[in-house]
Fold this sequence. Notes:
The chain has helices at 2-29, 43-69, 117-129, 167-175, 252-255, 273-298; strands spanning 82-89, 95-99, 107-110, 135-139, 153-154, 161-162, 178-186, 189-196, 199-205, 209-215, 218-224, 227-233, 256-258. The longest helix has 28 residues, at 2-29. The chain is elongated, with a radius of gyration of 51 Å. The strands form four sheets. The protein has a five-stranded mixed sheet with strand order 3-2-10-11-13. A four-stranded mixed sheet has the order 4-1-7-12. Strands 5-6 form a two-stranded antiparallel ribbon. It has one domain. The chain is of the alpha/beta class. The protein is built from six helices and 13 strands. Helices cover 36% and strands 25% of the residues. The termini are far apart.
Amino acid sequence: MKFVTKFTVLLAVLMLAAGCVTQRGMDSGESVPSQPNSEEATPTESTEQEDVVQDGDSVNDGTTKGESTKEPVSKPVAPPKQKVGVWVSAKKFPTHTHIGTTKFNNFTKEYSYDWQLNNTLYSTFKKAIEQNSRFTAVDISSMVDDAGALDFVMGEGNNGAFNDKQNTLRKSLLDKGIATVIIVEEAPTVAITECGTYGCSEHQSKGFGLFTRSFLGTDHYIASASFNVNVERLDKPVDVLTLPTFTEFQDDALKNERVEDFTPPDNFDEITEQELAPIKNTIVNYFDRLATAVGKYLSGQ
């Protein structure tokens, strides 16, 4: 009995062991789904990647198109400068005009000292005009031979009218961008006026330079800026120097200034260039003041 029982138990154990082995075999034999290669994209991932690429291309295309259609930024262009024509006519050498006690003592002579006054006066006006960056000076001496051709305005101040005879030249200058002209021409001026019992007498300076007056041993030395000066606008009929601001510059008394500290020359008949230097400086100073006033007028000051 004991033997049978042990045998039965052993058989049961063997059967259980065989069942476990079989089950394990079956478990091992079941196919395990193969995992996709990490380097191989699944259809879904592939589609997503294509969409991303397409979206990226669209973005790039949009940027490129946006850049290609973007308008370049243009730099501001400065307006053209307004031109002021300057015409200067003065002879090469200074003049000494002398009025003595009698007419037999009178004389007029030139000294061969090259003051280069044409260049000096042009440079003076150019400097004053171009203080304002909106303006530039232009030498028109080569365009016109005679100052009379530059007589564009008739009348005074703001009540003038254009001279029809000069319309062709005026319009030609306007076409070149010249809207104002300055005319400086050497001409006789009244250097001194003397009044007495029998009335007044005027004595003229015959040209720029030195004017002297001697009477009963008394000598007067006068720096003579003996010029006619006009400033005329071509865009509207205005003779600028007839405006109240410029009245003094048209006065011959201002153009002929007595030089109180002038040193009498060693030889009255042959005054040296060095002795005449104060006379030249006084003449240039007159034009400095005039040019400054014209520059302020053009700038609207």
